[in-house]
Amino acid sequence: MTTDNDKTTLDRADARVRHDDSLKGAIRDFTDRLRSGDLGMLPVIVGLVLISTVFSALNPVFLAPNNLVNLLFDCATVGVISLGIVCVLMLGEIDLSVGSMSGLASAMIGVLWVNAGVSLPLAIVAALATGAMIGAVYATLYNRLGMPSFVSTLSGLLAILGLQLYILGPTGSINLPFASALVGFGQLWILPAWLSYLLGLLPGAVMVWVGLSVMRQRTAAGLSAQPLGRLVLKAAALTVGLEGAIYYLHLGRGVPVMFGLFVLLAVILNYGLTRTQWGRSMFAVGGNREAARRSGINVRRIYLSAFMLCSTLAALGGILSAARLASSSQQAGTGDVNLNAIAAAVIGGTSLFGGRGSAWSAVLGIIVIQAISNGLTLLNLSSSLRYMITGGVLAIAVIVDSLARQSRVSHGRG
Amino acid sequence: MQARERLPAKGERILSLRGVTKRFGAVSALTDIELDIHAGEVVALVGDNGAGKSTLVKVLAGVHQPTAGSIEYMGRPVTLDSPAKALEMGIATVFQDLALCENLDVVANLFLGHELSPWRLDEVQMEVRAWTLLKELAARIPSVREPIASLSGGQRQTVAIARSLLLDPRIIMLDEPTAALGVAQTAEVLNLIERVRDRGLGVIIISHNMEDVRAVADRIVVLRLGRNNGVFTPETSNQDLVAAITGATENSVSRRQGRLAAEAGGTTA
Ligand SMILES: Nc1ncnc2c1ncn2[C@@H]1O[C@H](COP(=O)(O)OP(=O)(O)OP(=O)(O)O)[C@@H](O)[C@H]1O
Ligand SMILES: [Mg+2]
């Protein structure tokens, strides 16, 4: 035990536990966690460093500010879908139809808004509601008939794709008006510099503010609190990193508004998962369904919320990608969209086995995936190669997940 | 918590089962079970492995639905169709398999499904409650912020017991609560059972340890092959109890005791 804690607090009475508040202790905690298979964000950071070194060596344009801005535009569309995937993976389930769902939503925007003349907000609401409804169907099939989500969403994949082709009709592709707000949002809108710098300060400020209030509450309740120094250090590192990144992006066009929306959704989901009863129930159901049921959790409602959230976010992702491409087409949502969305969540550290994950995994994971895809495109590689490489990256991510899980089991970390 | 039933007067009948039957396909786990639980009473449920004790507890916890029979709670017929309903009515259970989420920490498991301030979890308050509750049980748990997966079997059992107390229940059912506990912790659990009985709660305890059963039980209900097989007082002789549990006066326990007695007699003679 450290000496600065002469009066033992409620949670530090057991002499067997090492409590080390120094920086060296923090580092040791970190390596302990890694060894026991609690990898957290480490694979992503390693991946990103690797990717940027390789690709910028092959083509210096890769790290150019404007290329990174484009990268963020691309991240937002599939990233939003990936947020939904985090929710279903958390329960140990899967949704294989998110690609088709996003394609259907994009088609609905084209058909309703451009062809039928429905107002844009109404078309968006209709697309999102369709997503929510399809999610509710999956949840009902799961809850009432015990149909594995793997099967129901696989059939959904085909059925929804069929619906997308059907409503697009023989023309197959609808262009969205370039001057519209939707396309501006998807291709042009950039946060004003002052706003992005200000927003960059926010996470660090919130971290210190929340950290201080938790510290005060814990000390008042007779519990140990994390040392102030470490809190300030973490917040400072975060702020410097963010402001640096924002500065670099502003050497080019700046931070896309659409990426801001993606991050905002991630923040909301993160709050939901970590700070509410709903989130706790999600982790519980994913970890041990029967134990969750016996604790009085309405397990069916949890499944319903996850599947609905996933399909709705997939629909939103589809709308964003229509905005990004300024068109609704038969190709929307096909190809690697499905796999990228799932791969992003897994690469970011959300387990396929349920009960473990975070909203941030979708953000970091999608940046990795899009960086690879963007880098390969810059090298003029065909999509055939891109598919093979992305498939390989997903396989590696799943292997890392499985190995980490085995290690966690043997180290008693659930 | 929601409006809970009033606290029953001491001796008042809280729970009564009539003709409760549970079949799993061809297996009749319970047949025509009759059982009464009164406020301020400890009822021990004993029986051999597979006698149906855990099944009975699960029926009362809302985990299994009975195939036939009726359950009265506080004088009113009830259907316990989900664990949530049983918990809400004030029936708390420590399951034999504990039913904890290994990926969550001790605090999260204790408050699972009943977290303080659902839209903005009050982690500090929950942690304080967790420590006080665990202290009451003389728990040896190094940290409440470690996942359950890292705890020993006995520590997990203590967490499960602590959880049953959290919701201010009217009845507590403990399915082999001391099976994995150390000497001090077993004594604490027995003390605790007496304390909650004195507070006017009904307690059902399942145990294979006759010494513990005699120490705390007011009545001993024997199940055998899924049927009632007699109700005894703690003063009943071991032989009669074993006979009721195994279904014969001539059994491996009495034979063994007879042999030991004969050997002891042989050496002294
Ligand atoms: N979910 C189930 N499906 C089928 N059969 C079951 C199920 N649960 C229990 N049984 C059967 O019911 C009978 C009673 O089991 P139960 O678990 O209630 O025994 P028990 O008295 O608790 O035994 P122990 O002392 O070993 O814990 C057993 O024959 C068992 O095989
Ligand atoms: Mg049992």
Describe this structure in words.
The complex is a heterodimer of chains A (414) and B (269). Chain A is mainly α and 414 residues long. Chain A has 2 domains: 40-189 and 256-404, Orthogonal Bundle (ABC transporter involved in vitamin B12 uptake, BtuC); 190-255, no CATH class. Chain A contains 16 helices and 2 strands. A two-stranded antiparallel ribbon of chain A has the order 1-2. Mean pLDDT of chain A is 90; it is low at 1-6. Chain B has 2 domains: 13-236, 3-Layer(aba) Sandwich (Rossmann fold); 240-269. In chain B, the strands form 2 sheets. Chain B has a 6-stranded mixed beta sheet with strand order 6-7-8-3-9-10, sandwiched between helices. In chain B, strands 2-1-4-5 form a 4-stranded antiparallel beta sheet, with helices on one face. Chain B starts with 12 loop residues before the first strand and ends with a helix. The interface between A and B is large, with 39 and 42 residues. The complex binds adenosine-5'-triphosphate and magnesium ion (MG). Magnesium ion binds next to helix 1 of chain B. Chain B: One of its GO terms (molecular function) is ATP hydrolysis activity. Chain B: This is ABC transporter ATP-binding protein.
